[in-house]
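Entry for the shared binder. Reason: the reviewer on the internal report wants the predicted structure included alongside the sequence.
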Amino acid sequence: MAKKMDARVKKSKKKFHNALISLMQEKRLEHITVKEMCERSGLNRGTFYLHYQDVFELMQEVERGLEEGFSAVLERAPMEALYEDEQKPVLREVCRYFEENAAACRLFLCRGEHTALVERVKSVVQKRALSQWRALHGGDDVRYEYAFAFISAGCIGMLTLWLEQDTPFSAEEMAQMMEHFLSKGAKDVMQHISTTRRQEAKSDTM
């Protein structure tokens, strides 16, 4: 019985999530009413207030779900591949996630709704990728942080354009394109910093 109830709750929440994302494509969050939410979701007010105090609390849950889902993708992805000759497995997982959640991601990236979430996602990427790089190559040079800020902004920019254009490329094609740009530029930047650090360390010992 409990499992059946859990499934029912998940189904109701999913309907509310989809309704909110749909309405936010038409108007700003502060202009969305519970009545509109219920009409769009096909559920009643009692069901809404059973789970949420207002649409803002629902929005927070949607944001949390996106952030947790993205973090889970990064946990599954082989981040060490970013610094080898094959970055596509990581990028493919990321692109698939954005493709599967295109409507919600488009709101946050393209329309600039709730930019705090975008900044948290960027922070998750930088922290995970940077910690992996340091684990492989050592060092805590602040220039690595600048490099990762540059790289993550570029990746977010590409994903934003992809969503704005209604994903004209498949997730696989997008991952391949990003891999090409990263392998041609980002990897060289990181290696240049590492080389510079070694040269500086060598100069200090002379």
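Summary line for the report: The chain has a mean pLDDT of 80.
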